[in-house]
Amino acid sequence: MIEKFSHIEPLHRINPAVAHLNRFGFIWDKENAIDRVFDHISFSFILAGDGFLVRDGLRTDLTAPILMISLPGESKLFRPHSVWMEFFLAYSADQLPALTKTLGKELLGRHLIPIGDIEIIKSMASLIESLSRRDLHNTVPDQLDRIAEAMILAAASDRDLKHVSKQECQVIQFAQYLEANFKHEIDFESLALRLGTSYSSIRKQWSRKFKLSPYAYLMELRMRYADKLLTETYMSIGDIAAECGFQDQRYFSRFFHRMTDSTPSKVRELSRNNNSIK
Predict the structure, then answer these.
(1) Distance (Å, rounded) from C-alpha 201 to C-alpha 189?
(2) Model confidence pLDDT, tens digit, residues 196-251
(3) Half-sphere exposure in the Cβ direction for 193 (13 Å, CA)
(4) What domains can you pick out in the chain, each with its CATH number?
(5) pTM of the model
(6) pLDDT over 90, % of the chain
(7) 222 close to 182: Cβ distance less than 8 angstroms
(8) CB of 51 within 8 A of CB of 79?
């Protein structure tokens, strides 16, 4: 059996409100049976092959493509008839409230969901794997968290996801773009149009998922990155300002002070005094 998986939960996140992915990976030729009581949350995307599931004494045949959801405390026995190909996402049990908020109780309670568009799922699995090969710092863990959520939503057909609106998916894409491009100038109106909606619609849906406005969220991403550069590098404050998307160093310093109640110079000095820079 060929397996490839990654653990990312301990890595720093910028957005603590999003469910933190613990691990993920491919199992190319799964052939063994699983008989266990789950202590974590598992999303198993069965991409090819077939098998069966026994849950609560009832046997159900499994035919790809299908998504199998397992929650903490559930007892399940499942196995391929011969082999199947699987991509999995796993979360620790304490992430259930965050996942419930994003995905809804109805989706999590379905246990088995036929996958509507297998090519989208394969593409998103490949994207997750590709991102995981990068330096897993800055916003990469946050991007992986977002893509994992979007992958779960995309796995279900429109019939199964009536409670998850197109607008909610657009908000997820909007947030993903901010997390990936916060260093650059971003035109919110143009970005919303590229996603097939208006910025006013994004803001309306955004407020249901985030405490910060889109602009405040963008600036929070920049400030956290600035703090990282101040404490972990020897870059000049001017270079850090430019790296974080600020064209004016003085404006950057004033904004940093307003957000953190400290100055970039003081943060760097304190970091050096505490021997944070190796």
Answers:
(1) 10
(2) 899 999 999 888 777 789 999 899 889 988 998 999 899 999 999 999 999 899 99
(3) 5
(4) 3-164 (2.60.120.280), 214-273 (1.10.10.60)
(5) 0.60
(6) 42
(7) yes
(8) yes
